[in-house]
């Protein structure tokens, strides 16, 4: 396992967090952003929820990183 494989794994994890829908997936399980305000944001669940929302906010850079990964894979074989 090299550094490139580790970076690809992190990119796949970021992609999986970016496609989670709050209305259909997160809210029915009690993971909506409205439930966590103030002190609750410092809890582990609040930190994970913040990570999910950060990856959803940065979708355009994720698209660019995915394109870069695809180009590198096509060139390197």
Automatic annotation (TrEMBL):
Q: Where is the signal peptide?
A: 1-18
Pfam families this protein is in?
Yos1 (PF08571)
**InterPro entries (alphabetical):** Yos1 (IPR013880)
According to the UniProt record, one GO cellular component term is:
endoplasmic reticulum membrane
Provide the protein's localization.
Membrane
Q: Which key words are in the record? A: Membrane, Protein transport, Signal, Transmembrane, Transmembrane helix, Transport
Q: Which GO terms describe its biological process?
A: endoplasmic reticulum to Golgi vesicle-mediated transport; protein transport
Q: Does the keyword Cell cycle apply?
A: no
- Asked if the record carries the keyword ATP-binding, the reply is no
UniProt family annotation: Belongs to the YOS1 family.
- Name this protein carries in UniProt: Immediate Early response 3-interacting protein 1-like
User: What gene, per UniProt, encodes this protein?
Assistant: LOC105167085
């Amino acid at each position: 396992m090299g550094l490139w494989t580790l970076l690809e794994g992190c990119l796949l994890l970021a992609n999986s967090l970016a496609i989670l829908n709050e209305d259909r997936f997160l809210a029915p399980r009690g993971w909506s952003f409205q439930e966590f305000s103030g002190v609750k944001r410092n809890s582990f669940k609040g930190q994970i929820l913040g990570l999910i929302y950060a990856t959803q906010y940065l979708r355009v850079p994720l698209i660019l990183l995915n394109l870069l990964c695809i180009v590198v894979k096509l060139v390197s074989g």
